[in-house]
Design goal:
Chain lengths: 736, 233
């Protein structure tokens, strides 16, 4: 081991991602030049990923409170109360940069990290979801990335033993150089047994648990806070390697020692590893921390203090244990074959002291490491408003049915079965609604309660109008939960944007947050956890703004749920909500007309609430036999999806005379649902909805083997299904 | 019925299995840790559940097959006791020598979670008496390595002795290449030992025992075992 540490030079500071003024801030804070280890610690704590220095100011405005919120943002995950002393713990987090460099390991460690966030709080994970954004299908790296990421997500979740029940997969050229891998985990805990990070008590043992520390992932969080360039592949050594088996053992061991009441505080070692976890435990508890690195279990000899403090080796935890329970906890960990080592103690000094080989390698004020991190009010400019495109100005290049056949097989709208069949989505025996519907439904233990889970965002809307796009992402998650009969409860957000140092990108972030915030308030869905991923750019080209919204809803009784599949022939098909034929930013405009243009559909939050509440009521009363929310692709795509899922066709009325037909069938107006009802209930439903002023019209009848629009060529449902299922497997096999 | 569910590090479908056993037999199974050297007194069914024992590192089931508890299971099986291995459990039973053959990587090289149809080849086994011979049931698979293979002689013996109990098939019972989800020899989804008391199968009947999962076809396997053990007792 070299005892000579590098000299602190401006170049070394810059290579740690610290700007000159940030370094000045360090000098002022500690009154001397930092040691090499200290410089590493600052770079880990003050990078964008850990400090949220560009976004913090704007995140403050988000609604995070409600009577059912037990824990909002700031802990490992958010927690909501669902009654009966049951709590749901959930969060979504990105692993974008590592997944682009090394897709399999990047994705596995993304899933592993978010699972750890959830079980750190005392919850057993019961479901995972994810949102994946890839580059254009024709981009030479896309196939490789899809293949690796999907195998990685599955490889970790399947082995760990959690059902992966839903998500999004999209392709767009703006992700060519910077894919997005957002993973969400949901866990179940007892409301009165939630574990937090704040240490308490002086002289308490700090215990290291889990896998050994290696040299992997050093500076991972710093990498995630920088743009990519042509040399990004050289950053492969900063990607960590996942071990789902170790994580499964860690889960069982952690839950066992929590049940045995051994734990005072617990924090997983995620981004910035030992540094971030130790500082958070101390700072949150108003305590100092003394760490002795000689006690840290290491995978290889000769690791320096700097390396140990910055390693992002996976499947590790830090805990403060009740001293009298230390032996019991150790026995439990040994039983599971995991490392257990006392690596330090809490102190009253509020100092973060790191010792190694008898030397003090770092001694820093612990609160200031987090609290005094730079906070930027970065300049931001509002995105220019795009013109509203009128349907009558858009000529239809092909017929309605031809457009349907084409759209149902596009990368955007095709079946994603090839992806989700690589994820074990039935383990646990609670997956009431499997992937492919509006929201997944997962029963809670033996029921009757269940969760409705979804992840949504429409990045092209966010790009065209960040504010409306932000609103729409929340509204769509809310609609998807509603469409299966769930009561939307809370949200986790994963905000993926480009370089915040560019005012137009910062403007997208600010605009999206404003929209998200308004929608969360109007739809009574607080944000309880989240993650911000910036610098998603390659060579100065940013991704589409992609604020993924993970929604969690509650069903009191899973039997009072519906799916989108048509259930029987002869039922009335009702369209709820107003249809103006909004083609701006629609899939039709882009994929049929070749124009990615115009303002996206505006979101009327009051209408969303009113229409959704009515639909949920129809599900609970048993009137609605099938429900589907309208989103990408509009009315005819939604109808096709219902027909395909139920293997039942439909006879549909022609578009109303006042409407441009292709705008009626493919417009993407918001706040709309399709609902089927039995003939006997039809009159009652129509009368009731008219009385309460919710727009509703019967547009056809289920039945037959075709989708048949009056005056158009009927299309066979089986043929539609075949086209819907074909694109992705063909593409992955190199045939499309 | 007094069943024992083995728990190896990395096993993850033990809860699903325990729930199915409890639901259908009315009795809570004993969960038996891999380091145990014996089975609970009075055990009449040993279940090796699915999951990723030891992370599937080295080779699926290879490490678990050498766990202390497996000696007790071998002894139990030698005495005619009923042993059911599902998914990773099947792999463990093959690795431990209780069943012949090996489970290789799926022919399409991917993990697959999908409902499959199985043809029940005979109904006179404790593991199939809840069904009729020729009946088609629907259960999910969730595995990356379920491609059953054995040497030609073994395969011939399995067929000749009627030891293939479950075979992948189409919804109407046709065994064909298209229904063969993982490329298994002769569409084999489940086989029994030469004495007929040890079953290994890749699909998960324990995940199709409740209507909420959209199908209850898996119940028959457990109901048959309950009936068999009830009569034997």
């Amino acid at each position: 081991m070299s005892s000579v540490e590098p000299k602190i030079t401006p170049e070394l500071v810059a290579s740690h991602g610290l700007k000159p003024d940030e370094y000045q801030r360090i000098l002022k804070l500690i009154g001397r030049e930092p040691t090499f280890t200290e410089l590493g610690i600052f770079s880990a704590m003050w990078n964008e990923h850990c400090s949220y220095k560009s976004s913090r100011l704007h995140l403050k405005g988000l609604p995070t409170k409600a009577p059912w919120v037990l824990q909002g943002p700031g802990e490992n995950a958010g927690v909501i109360d669902i009654g009966d002393n049951q709590a749901i713990v959930f969060k979504m987090e990105s692993h974008n940069h590592p997944s682009f460099i090394e897709p399999y390991q990047g994705a596995t460690t993304g899933v592993g990290g978010i699972l750890r966030d959830v079980f750190t709080m005392g919850a057993r994970p019961i479901a995972c979801l994810n949102a994946l954004s890839f580059g254009a299908p024709e981009h030479p790296r896309t196939r490789h990335l899809v293949s690796g990421v999907v195998a990685g997500v599955g490889g970790y979740g399947n082995s760990f033993g959690v059902p992966t029940v839903g998500g999004q997969v999209r392709f767009h050229t703006r992700y060519d150089g910077n894919i997005l891998v957002n993973a969400m985990a949901v866990g179940l805990a007892d409301s009165d047994k939630i574990f937090l990070a704040a240490a308490s008590g002086v002289g308490m043992p700090i215990v290291y648990l889990g896998s050994k520390t290696g040299r992997d992932g050093i500076h991972g969080a710093s990498m995630a806070s920088a743009e990519f360039d042509d040399d990004s592949a050289e950053k492969r050594p900063t990607v960590q390697v996942g071990d789902p088996f170790a994580e499964k053992l860690l889960l069982e061991a952690c839950l066992e020692i929590m049940a045995a009441d051994c734990v005072i505080a617990i924090q997983d070692m995620g981004a910035a590893g030992l540094t971030c976890s130790a500082v958070e435990m101390g700072a949150k508890g108003d305590l100092g921390v003394d760490l002795d690195l000689d006690a840290v279990p290491t995978r290889e000899p000769g690791m320096t203090a700097y390396e140990m403090m910055l390693s992002e080796s996976q499947e590790r935890m830090l805990m403060v244990l009740k001293p009298e329970k230390e032996k019991q906890a150790e026995a439990i960990f040994k039983k599971w074959g995991l490392d257990f080592a006392v690596v330090g103690y809490t102190t009253p000094t509020k100092r973060f002291v790191v010792k190694h080989g008898g030397d003090v390698k770092a001694e820093l004020p612990i609160k200031e490491l987090g609290d005094e991190a730079p906070l930027y009010d970065r300049p931001h400019v509002e995105s220019p408003k795009l013109p509203v495109i009128h349907a009558r100005d858009i000529a239809a290049p092909i017929g309605v049915m031809e457009a349907l056949e084409k759209l149902i097989a596009t990368p955007e709208l095709c079946s994603k079965r090839w992806v989700w069949e690589q994820y074990d989505h039935v383990i646990g025996g609670n997956t009431v609604q499997r992937p492919g519907g509006d929201a997944a439904v997962v029963r809670i233990e033996d029921g009757p309660k269940a969760l409705a889970l979804t992840v949504d965002v429409t990045p092209r809307y966010c790009e065209a109008d960040p504010y409306e796009g932000g609103k729409q992402a929340v509204a769509e998650a809310w609609r998807n939960i509603t469409a299966v009969g769930g009561k939307p409860m809370a949200i986790t957000d994963n905000l993926n944007f480009g370089n915040p140092e560019r005012p137009e990108i910062m403007g997208q972030l600010v605009g999206c947050l404003k929209g998200i915030s308004e929608a969360c308030i109007a739809l009574d869905s607080p944000i309880v956890s989240g993650n911000v991923s910036l610098y998603n750019e390659t060579n100065g080209r940013g991704i589409l703004p992609t604020p993924s919204i993970g929604g969690v809803g509650l069903l009191d009784d899973f039997t009072k749920s519906t799916t989108l599949a048509f259930k029987a022939a002869g039922e009335a098909i009702l369209l709820i909500g107003d249809t103006h034929g909004w083609l701006g930013q629609s899939v039709y405009l882009r994929d049929i007309c070749g124009r990615e243009e115009g303002a996206p559909p505006p979101v009327d939050l009051a209408a969303e609430k009113r229409h959704g509440d009515v639909v949920r009521g129809m599900i609970h009363s048993g009137t609605a036999t099938a429900v589907h929310d309208l989103s990408d692709g509009g009315l005819l795509i939604a109808l096709a999806e219902m027909a395909i899922a139920g293997s039942i066709g439909a006879a549909l009325d022609a578009a109303p005379e006042a409407m441009v037909p292709h705008a009626w069938w493919f417009g993407e107006d918001q706040a709309r649902y399709l609902v089927t009802v039995a003939q006997d209930d039809l009159l009652g439903v129509l009368t009731k909805l008219k009385t309460i002023g919710v727009p509703c019209a019967q547009i056809g009848l289920t039945g037959g083997h075709t989708l048949a629009i009056e005056g158009e060529r009927p299309v066979d449902v089986r043929a539609l299904n075949a086209a819907h299922e074909r694109w992705l497997p063909d593409y992955m096999a190199g045939k499309a | 019925m007094k069943s024992a569910v083995l728990v190896f590090p990395g096993i993850n479908r033990e809860r699903d299995m325990a729930r199915a056993l409890k639901l259908i037999s009315g009795h809570e199974p004993a969960m038996v840790w891999h380091a145990e050297k014996s089975l609970p007194v009075g055990t009449d069914l040993v279940v090796v559940p699915g999951g990723f024992s030891y992370g599937d590192y080295l080779r699926c089931g290879a490490i678990a097959a050498r766990a202390p508890v497996m000696d007790a299971v071998r002894k139990f099986a030698d005495g005619g006791g009923l042993v059911l291995g599902v998914c990773n459990g099947f792999q463990i039973l093959c690795e431990s020598g209780l069943l012949p053959g090996v489970l290789m990587r799926n022919a399409r090289l991917k993990f697959i979670c999908h409902d499959v149809h199985l043809r029940v080849e005979r109904s006179d086994s404790p593991f199939t008496r809840g069904y009729n011979a020729g009946q088609v049931i629907r259960v999910p698979v969730a595995h990356g390595e379920g491609n059953y293979e054995a040497d030609a002689e073994t395969l011939q013996r399995l067929e000749g002795d009627g030891r293939v109990l479950y075979r992948y098939c189409s919804a109407d019972g046709i065994v064909d290449e298209q229904s063969n989800i993982n490329g298994a020899a002769a569409g084999i989804a489940g086989i029994v030992s030469d004495r007929g008391n040890v079953l290994g199968m890749m699909p998960h009947p324990e995940n199709h025992v409740e209507a909420i999962m959209g199908c209850t076809d898996g119940r028959g396997l457990f109901a048959g075992l309950v009936e068999h053990l009830g009569r034997a007792a």
